[in-house]
Amino acid sequence: MIRVWEFLTATRGGARLHWTDWASYAYLFFGVFLMFFPVIWLVMSSFKTEADLQRYPPTFLPYQQQTLMIDGYDAPLPLFEITGGAYEGMILAQVRRVGLQAQMIDPASPGERLRVGIEDRVPVERFTLATENYTELFERFSFLLYFWNSTFITVMATLIMLLTNSMAAFALSKYDFRGRTAVLLIVIGTLMIPQTVVLVPLFLIVTELGMFNSLWGVIIPGAATPTGVFLLRQYMLTIPDEILDAARMDKASEWKIYWRIILPLSAPAIAVLAILAIMWRWNDFLWPLIVLTRSENFTLQLALNSFQGELQTDWSSLLAMTVLTLLPIALVFMFLQKYIATGIASTGGK
Amino acid sequence: MASIELKNLRKSYGAVDVIKGVDMQIAHGEFCVFVGPSGCGKSTLLRMISGLEPITSGDIEIAGEVVNTIPAADRGLAMVFQSYALYPHMTVRQNLSFGLENINTPRAEITRKVDEVAKMLQIDMLLDRRPKDLSGGQRQRVAIGRAVVREPKVFLFDEPLSNLDAELRVDMRGEIAALHRRLGNTMIYVTHDQVEAMTMADKIAVLRLGEVEQFGAPLELYNNPRNLFVAGFIGSPKMNFIAGQVDASDRTILHLDTGESMKLPATGFRQQVGEPVTLGIRPNHMHAIEGGPVKVLVKSVEQLGGESYVYGHTSRGAPITLHSPGQTRIDFGDTVYVDAPLDEIHLFDSGSGLTLREG
Predict the structure, then answer these.
(1) In B, which residues are within 8 Å of A256 by CB distance?
(2) CA distance A186 to B63
(3) In this structure, are strands B57-62 and B65-66 parallel, antiparallel, or unpaired?
């Protein structure tokens, strides 16, 4: 903790701040603001009510108008502070509003109706988190189902992808066979074909195989990626062949060499690939949108999209769900980011 | 019994012949060293025996059985690699037990064997460490231990000491020799260092350009080198060579190309009159003597106290080394005359390089 503080308050040296310190910190704060402000704004907005979201000018913190339950009325009445006229300074509850006049009552003496001009009152607001945005996700929408779909697709697709890619990379880096370069070139060549071009044929194949509207239809087509094969191959090239020879002399089968020697030694590259795959699969939108049409198969991204109607958008639910969708990926990144940095450095550098 | 026999063994990469027909017989329990300059194919030959390198033609027999198509794992061999090739992600214990696990040895037996071998190689206190935390010598021991623990028929060593510093190398040399005495297995050891070869081997195979130049006991190679290459390669410092021609009428007189002449023994060599020959004399057989037949201009002198080396060259520029016990009075810039006892000289055909020794 002390070291973190030391790092965050590091200066150029000397007791007084040099002008470069000021410049650096200004620059860094600007960067932090630029990157974090939208995220924080999103989180704040996700706690606002629908009415609060529509307000102009917008507020940073979520506010809600205070209400009060008064005998004789079915619903809680909104509270207003009176800023002018006969009742200035009082806090009244509004019964109804008619044109430019509002009918209000004093909570202290609920029998008497008072008339106030609408320009003479200001809503009584307090900082309140609209947690119902979140609870509603679980009550009204099947958030957990979407979450499960997304998790299932992400985890399965990542595992299958790591397995197939690492096996291909092992073969392409450690076995000398006729046509190895050609295979590698074909694999890398597929990088040049945009996904949108093969979308229709891919869709036909998936439909033909009966995987339309199934989670496997999302998982299988992306199970092998050229980038993954290439990344792992380049890393595996750095593993000395003598270690494999030693394992062969130790009577290890080729499968065992792959499983016990190659995979553990490629762990940094595999970690990088796993993180990339998780992020890609979790955030993937286009392909699931095409394959999954029934709402019980929706991933979170598709569910988010469905909140956005043609005429009306349920912003409060949409924002709350966006936050929940971001969380897992942010956590993954937080815990594994050191592997990304070291992994990318060592896959490229050696 | 694990004798090894190589029959006309060949290996080529495309049009390039790397091993050009090697025949060799290694008896059970022998310590055989392949020695030669780098690029001579000695490591390739070892890898062919191990099964890691496919052979182009010929036969490899282990214990009388042709193993050409048997994969490396099933030949009953163990190999120690130049880079040690330890599994970096495993502890020393896991490194040692990996091979045993692969042949489904019961867990208790693995533990027993690993402990036993670790004790023997004095690495028992390192069993829980990873290779990166070990010194070069310790890694070497682990690599040897990994080979020993599987109780193979034959051990193969591929330049195992070349990554160690000089002092450690001498120690490990002794330990490997001791290991061979204790286990009594057949061992094949590849090195480019002829001192290692001389000190450890029962048999030495000198290789050059994919061919065996000579195969035999160390002293046999030292005393009766078959050709100029073996004569120059075995022994340290190198044998001195002086080109010359046998006298046109008297085959016991040699005219050196420096213009000097000396006597040759009448028996022991089959030199013909007028034949161009190369005279070979080991540095320790050469001595400076007043009135010696060959003039040497001294370039430098190394006084080690107990022994001394004198480096110089003949009047035609051929390098000459003198090695003598004790201390010498010869100094830099001197001109000395050297001679050698007739029964210690070697004589080679200058054209083919083969020895002219009879028998």
Answers:
(1) 102
(2) 47
(3) antiparallel
Cβ-Cβ contacts under 8 Å, A249 against chain B: 50, 52, 72-73, 77-79, 99
Shortest Cα–Cα distance, A269 to chain B (Å): 15
At residue A162, the 3 state secondary structure works out as helix
CA of B159 to nearest chain A CA: how many angstroms apart? Answer: 13
Tell me whether residues A256 and B102 touch, CB distance under 8 A.
yes
How far away is chain B from the Cα of A224, in angstroms, using its nearest Cα? 27
Nearest CA in chain B to A256: B102
Q: Concatenated DSSP letters for A219-266?
A: HGGGSS-HHHHHHHHHHHTTS-HHHHHHHHHTT--HHHIIIIIIHHHT
The verdict on B83 touching A (C-beta cutoff 8 Å) is yes
Q: Is A286 on the interface with B (CB under 8 A)?
A: no
Asked if B88 reaches chain A (Cβ–Cβ under 8 Å), the answer is yes
Chain A residue with the nearest C-alpha to that of B74? A251
- Nearest partner of A61 among A35, A80, A40, A81, judged by Cα: A40
CB-CB: which of A249, A261, A264 is closest to B77?
A: A249
Question: Which residue from B82, B89, B150 is facing A264, i.e. has the nearest CB?
Answer: B89
Who contacts B9 (Cβ-Cβ below 8 Å, separation ≥6)? Answer: B19, B21, B22, B23, B45, B48, B55, B57, B58, B59, B60
Domains B4-229 and B237-349 share a fold: no
pTM, two decimals, is 0.80
d(CA B345, CA B357): 10
Judged by a CB distance cut-off of 8 A, whether residue B89 touches chain A is yes
Does A252 reach chain B within 8 Å, measured CB to CB? yes
**Could you read off the pLDDT tens digit of each residue along chain A, which spans 350 residues?**
777 887 777 777 767 788 888 898 999 999 999 999 999 999 999 998 888 888 888 888 888 888 888 887 888 888 888 888 778 888 888 888 888 888 888 888 877 888 888 888 888 888 888 888 888 888 877 888 999 999 999 999 999 999 999 999 999 999 999 999 999 999 999 989 888 898 999 999 999 999 999 999 999 988 888 999 999 999 999 999 999 999 999 989 999 999 999 999 998 889 889 888 998 999 999 999 999 988 889 999 998 888 877 777 888 888 888 998 899 888 888 887 777 666 555 544 33
The structure tokens listed for A177 are 């066979």
3-state secondary structure of B210: coil
- List strands edge to edge, sheet with B276-281: B261-263, B253-256, B240-246, B276-281, B346-349
Residue B251 contacts residue B273 (beta carbons within 8 Å): yes
- The DSSP 8-state label assigned to residue B161 in this structure reads T
| Chain A nearest C-alpha distance from B268 (Å) | 49
Measured between alpha carbons, how far is A248 from B98 in angstroms, rounded to an integer?
11
Q: Identify the CATH number of the domain defined by range B4-229.
A: 3.40.50.300
Q: Which CATH number fits domain B237-349: 2.40.50.140, 3.40.50.720, 3.40.50.2300, 2.130.10.10?
A: 2.40.50.140
Paired tokens of A328:
């897992």
List the domain boundaries for chain B: 4-229, 237-349
- Edge to edge, what strands does the sheet with B287-288 contain? B287-288, B335-339, B294-303, B307-313, B319-325
Cβ distance A263 to A114 under 8 Å? no
Which of B71, B85, B146 shows the shortest C-beta gap to A245?
A: B85
